[in-house]
Amino acid sequence: MSVTSVVHAGQSTRFVCRSYMAAVLAPKPPIIEWVAEIEQKIKDAGHLFIGPPVVLDLAAVKLSQSAIAHLVAQLEERGVRVMGLENADAASTGVGVPPLVRSSRGIGASGDLAQSQAPTPAPVPAPEPRRGIATLLVDEPVRSGQTIFFPDGDVTVLGSVGSGAELIAGGSIHVYGTLRGRVMAGSDGNTRARIFCSKAEAELLAIDGHYLTADMMDKGLRDRAVQAWLDGNAVRVAALD
Amino acid sequence: MAKVVVVTSGKGGVGKTTSTAALGAALAQIGQNVVIVDFDVGLRNLDLVMGAERRVVYDFINVTQGIAKLPQALIRDKRLDKLALLAASQTRDKDALTEDGVQRVIASLRQMFDWVICDSPAGIERGATLAMRYADTAIIVTNPEVSSVRDSDRIIGILDAKTLKAERGERVDKHLLITRYDQARAARGEMLNIDDVLEILSTPLLGIVPESEEVLRASNLGSPVTLNNSNSGPARAYFDAARRLMGEDIEMTIPTDRQGLFGKLFGRRAA
Fold first, then answer.
1. Would you say A65 and A34 are in contact if contact means Cβ atoms under 8 Å apart?
2. What is the spatial distance between Cα B271 and Cα B256, in angstroms, rounded to a whole number?
3. What's the CA gap between B106 and B83, in Å, rounded?
4. Which residues of B touch A178 (CB under 8 A)?
5. ipTM for the whole predicted complex goes beyond 0.90
6. B198/B143 Cα distance (integer angstroms)
7. CB-CB contact of A212 with A8 (8 Å)
8. Which helix (H) or strand (E) holds B7?
9. Under 8 Å CB-to-CB from B111, ≥6 apart: which residues?
């Protein structure tokens, strides 16, 4: 096996993706009554909402930016600190209110693939509920602009990954097709994660945040079957054939 | 009950409106009842390409708002009695279209025609997603060129997410229509060749429409190319594509403009 590698040590910018657990509060109209309910709940079981980060799921209400800011302030007065908003209009978010967050829910397809409301069958199947080695199998091409986020383990794609698509996995990433997009393996700090593909035209390869862009990769490896792994702080790439 | 087809692309200027008109006219000439619907509110073109711009009284938005009834807004083509047009509004923009309004109009059109062909605007925002929302079938128009191919890939992903069919766990039938194909340029490597495009997009091919001056000629005359010059390369490609859409199995070729004797003698290169 010939080893051709590119070493780029000492990068100060790293892509790090982590998922955190947050409690979710879902306001329902009328807001005033709901806030009163929350106040009561805090008296009963405050430790559930005071301390851990809280995300507000705004799917059931239509609030303007100032209304959201007001609600967040009211909750803050009662000791509930809101760190993110879910299912809010992009128009009502911005400076002055917490940022929009997207839940991963463990199934891990977001962007165009996410069906966050009803349990409709998403094109991406759920992982096996086992500890340790969870694998997400995607049996069709990943299209430009789609994001697959699977922090629980490996991602395997039976098909190509389009230019402008993103795969983010806690484990390794295997693409049985042409890899044209961006892949980030070991997103949770797994330095032993690897990236494999049948045909390398990747825009970006990253393992545990250390990355190589297309420009930084050896031109001789383009269009070949390759694997990438982490050697210290450097991503190394070698042909598989 | 009709088939609802969306003609979409992501990228602008690749031939959606041209193809909608050409395919609509081809299907009508084969005997099908066809309505073509312009979803590009504010930048409407389908009426121009069909030569109907001076006959637009009521448009799509008027119907969704209840200002006009659907039969009042439908414009029958003067040349093909099985072809009708529902024009877009030029004075509003895409936010004026409501999902509910579109749903009602498409439902009514389904009852009246065999084919409802929706000409999508470019982009991936509301106009494009509304045009595709109720589609059974999608035709993705692509030029053999890198930007167009990537944008088509994006729109294919969106077809699998934002359509009613996708939300119900079903699939929109997707077909690729390659337009403005120039064999000589592809051979010189100036343009992607068909295999490259198919490899990247992994979608069945409906047809290959060659680059040709006939398209602009027809457009300027306000006639779809399949009506204006049905022997030209693009027209024959569109007729083949229309037949494949109806389920016929036709060998995939890239038709060239048929030249008369003088054309051959004086050597105008066919597209």
1. no
2. 6
3. 16
4. 199-200
5. no
6. 12
7. yes
8. strand B3-8
9. B1, B2
Residue A184 pairs in a beta bridge with: A168, A206
Using CB atoms and an 8 Å cut-off, which of residues 16-55 of chain A contact chain B?
Answer: none
Alpha-carbon gap, residue B18 to B221, rounded angstroms: 13
- From the number of C-beta atoms within 10 Å of its C-beta (0-12, 13-18, 19+), residue A130 rates as exposed
Q: Do the chains contact at B161 and A112, CB–CB below 8 Å?
A: yes
DSSP secondary structure string for all residues of A92-111: G-STTSPPB----TTT-EEG
> Which are the contacts of B77, defined by CB distance < 8 A and separation ≥ 6?
B25, B28, B50, B52, B83, B84, B85
Residue type, A162: G
Nearest CA in chain A to B154: A144
Q: What is the C-alpha separation between B58 and B48, in angstroms, rounded?
A: 15
- Using CB atoms, which residue from A112, A160, A180 is nearest to B157? A112
Sheet holding A134-138, edge to edge: A134-138, A153-157, A173-179, A195-200, A226-231, A234-239
Between helices B126-133 and B99-112, what is the axis angle to 10°? Answer: 40
Which tokens hold the place of B254? 């890239």
Q: CA-based angle B33:B245:B80, to the nearest 5? A: 30
Question: Which segments of chain B have a pLDDT < 70?
Answer: 258-271
Give me the residue label for tokens 């312009």. Answer: B38
**pLDDT of the residue at B9:** 97
pLDDT tens, chain A, 241 aa long: 444 444 445 556 777 777 677 778 888 888 888 888 888 888 877 666 677 788 888 888 888 888 888 888 888 888 888 888 888 877 766 777 888 887 654 333 444 443 333 333 344 555 544 455 689 999 999 999 999 999 999 999 999 999 999 999 999 999 999 999 999 999 989 999 999 999 999 999 999 999 999 999 999 999 999 999 999 999 999 999 8
